[in-house]
Inverse folding.
């Protein structure tokens, strides 16, 4: 089975004003012994339910990929990131596919 995991993450800035751009970057790694094909990564601004979904066609076993996205207006608030949000990839551990972070309003 494939095993998708968050490897590294950067969210800048961590404090923002209205209309300020927030940049999110995550590294995803497939620790499993088989490839992960056709899965989506969803970034969601929870207060407005705005989301950006990025489709990954293939992530080979023991390989990683960097995903980036941006949000604005309002950018502050709570965000979630879901790996394989459509459950297309069979994984040995599904519970590690969710990450949440907050950007503080200044």
């Amino acid at each position: 089975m494939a095993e998708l995991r968050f490897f590294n993450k950067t969210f800048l800035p961590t404090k923002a004003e209205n209309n300020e751009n927030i940049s999110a970057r995550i590294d995803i790694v497939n620790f499993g012994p088989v490839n992960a094909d056709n899965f989506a990564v969803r970034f969601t601004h929870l207060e407005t339910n705005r989301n950006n979904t990025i489709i990954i066609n293939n992530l080979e076993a023991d390989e990683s990929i960097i995903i980036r996205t941006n949000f604005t207006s309002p950018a502050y608030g709570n965000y979630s990131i879901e790996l394989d949000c459509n459950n297309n990839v069979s994984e040995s551990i599904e519970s590690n596919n969710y990450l949440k972070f907050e950007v503080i309003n200044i």
Q: What stands out?
A: The beta strands are 4-12, 15-16, 22-30, 36-45, 50-59, 64-71, 77-83, 98-105. The first strand starts at residue 4 and ends at 12. The chain has a mean pLDDT of 90. The radius of gyration is 14 Å.
